[in-house]
Amino acid sequence: MTNKKVVVCVSGGIAVYKACELVRLLKKANCEVKVAMTKNAMEFVNPTTFEVLSQNEVFTSVFPENKRKDTYHIELARWADLVLIVPATANIIGKIANGIADDIVTTTLTGTKSPVIFAPAMNDFMFENSAVQQNIQKLKSFGYLMIPPGFGELACGIYSIGRLAEPEIIFAEVEKFFKNQNLLLGKKILITAGPTREFIDPVRFISNPSTGKMGFAIAEQSQKMGAEVTLVSGKVSIPFPNGVKLISVTTAEEMLKATSENYEKQDVVIFTAAVGDYKPKTISTEKIKKSEENLTIELVKNVDVAYELGKIKKGKIHVGFAVETENEIANSQEKLKRKNFDFIVCNNPKIEGSAFSTPTNKVTFVFGNGKTEELPLLPKEQVALAILEKIFPEKF
Ligand SMILES: Cc1cc2nc3c(=O)[nH]c(=O)nc-3n(C[C@H](O)[C@H](O)[C@H](O)COP(=O)(O)O)c2cc1C
Predict the structure, then answer these.
(1) Cα–ligand 1 centroid distance for 52 (angstroms)
(2) Domain-wise residue ranges, the chain
(3) Which of 155, 166, 249, 374 registers the highest number of CB atoms within 10 A of its CB?
């Protein structure tokens, strides 16, 4: 991490002393470190400690004495390769989630375009407070990274959630961040995600329970590693990842059109979308009335996005997803050949915590040479990383 410029923002929680150790670890790894402190953080540790550890001036005010005032308040924001907020109080989290910039720490955080990692720490009731949780979700949706607090002994003497991640863990996350940052620089990845909708009449459609979480997780991880990401998504209700080109579609035909139009320049296409295999033969122009006892809707085969692009694949890598409830491996092998995939990620919604609508997934990789590799049940972010590792083994 030699010469990486890290700003450590310190807010007023009991865990401020751990930020001292973090600064020491960063300096030992040859980072350049500058520290900014809130007024309340200085109630816990004197700025001199950080000044000595960072071997740099400590920023404690937007209007410091004897300093040039014109751009002082955004000096750190521009200087940083990475900004850490350790510990992040409930107060700081709330301020940044709402665009407040009323001291040197919040001004630096709102004024930076560099990546920011929050390490929250607080009493368990504060952490579980609905407003705090909502603010954390809001920050995540803005693209801020989080190192969640752990369980442990809290300053108030109880054993619960809210304890700041240990400095060694935060340091390891910083190392991982810099290592991953440019791993996929120059790579172009298109990801299809979410469900498609096929309309029966103006107010009803056939769809499936896909939430888009798996595709969005891959898009987010790829973008964080520097790839240029295009996300073609069906209608979903989860926040869109920052920094990706998003194309929102409704039907399978729209998904095929958007994917084809953006296909040529891609290195990799990952087909996570749950595309409807069938659609109504005709769409009623008026709402179908509830008149007959039974209603029969004739369905016809839908376009197959992965199959169509598989026909013109050339040098690109295509990764498919298979939702199978029986004969998973054999069905995936057949699909892999028919759609010209390089490998398939197979998941079974009958396994608890797997496939649709869950934050986790249990997948098996199925390769063209007949090999398979089964992963344990993992958060979708980790499944996303495992998929990227399989696509770019030379990068990891
Ligand atoms: C002894 C003590 C410990 C505190 N620890 C925390 C803490 O761990 N997390 C937190 O969010 N607030 C904590 N607080 C409350 C914050 O200091 C308070 O909300 C303050 O307004 C935060 O200001 P800042 O975010 O500008 O630094 C603590 C207060 C005291 C007196």
Answers:
(1) 24
(2) 5-181, 188-395
(3) 249
Q: Which of 91, 108, 109 to mutate to test the pocket of ligand 1 (most atoms within 8 A of CB)?
A: 91
Please tell me if the CB atom of residue 384 comes closer than 6 angstroms to any atom of ligand 1.
Answer: no
Classify 5-181 by CATH class. alpha beta
Query: Nearest 5°: phi and psi at 285?
Result: -75, -25
C-alpha span between 87 and 162 (Å, rounded): 11
* Nearest-angstrom CA–CA distance, 185 and 208: 34
CATH H superfamily, domain 188-395: CoaB-like (3.40.50.10300)
SS3 letters for 284-319? CCCCCCCCCCCCCCCEEECCCHHHHHHCCCCCCEEE
Please report, in tens digits, the pLDDT of each residue of the chain (396 residues total): 899 999 999 999 999 999 999 999 999 999 999 999 999 999 999 999 999 999 999 999 999 888 777 788 888 999 999 999 999 999 999 999 999 999 999 999 999 989 999 999 999 999 999 999 999 999 988 889 999 999 988 887 888 899 999 999 999 999 999 998 889 999 999 999 999 999 999 999 999 999 999 999 999 999 999 999 999 999 999 988 888 999 999 999 999 999 999 999 999 999 999 999 999 999 999 999 998 899 999 999 999 999 999 999 989 999 999 988 889 899 999 999 999 999 999 988 888 887 777 888 899 999 988 899 999 989 888 999 999 999 999 988
Q: What is the maximum alpha-carbon separation in the chain?
A: 84
Cα–ligand 1 centroid distance for 229 (angstroms): 39
